[in-house]
Amino acid sequence: MAILRYLKYLFWVLIIAVLLILSLANRQRVTLKLIPDDLVEWIGMEQTIDLPLFLVILGGIVIGLLVGFVWEWLREHRHRAEAKSQHREKQKLEREVAGLKGQAHKSKDEILALVEETGHQPGTRRRL
Asked: Where are the beta strands (DSSP E) in 6-107?
């Protein structure tokens, strides 16, 4: 298992190295237009930002990851709700079984109830 941990660390080191090299190679500034030219004429204001290219690339990656995480979280909502419902049902049934076991032994002698709970049949011998 230690090998897998080191492989995971190696993977993350490689990802960080690739992103660092990508960032150093793309330091030139680019202009991002936030509103298309046709809308600028209609609205009357121009929105542009000058950023290094690596920030645009890394920002796109981060935004893509966030959208993917949120999409997956929303998609799995149905499964989480079903698991929660089943957990509640299981707890309810466990309480009901415990209550029924208590009622079954209510009219019996305490010793007989303990023997029945352990599953030992009276009149049979246990081997040690």
From this structure: 29-33, 48-52
Residue 6 lies in a domain: no
Residue 92 β-bridge partners? none
Q: What are phi and psi of 30, to 5 degrees?
A: -125, 155
**How sure is the predictor about 9, in pLDDT bands with cuts at 50, 70 and 90?**
very high
Structural domain total, the chain: 2
Q: At 86, is the secondary structure helix, strand, or coil?
A: helix
Cα 117 to Cα 125: distance, rounded to the nearest angstrom = 17
CA 101 vs. chain centroid, Å, equals 38
End-to-end Cα spacing for the chain: 41
The answer to the question of residue 10 being in a domain is no
Q: Would residue 15 count as lying in a domain?
A: no
* Separation CA 34–CA 31 (nearest Å): 10
pLDDT digits (tens, 9 = 90+) for 12-49: 999 999 988 988 898 899 998 888 888 877 887 778 88
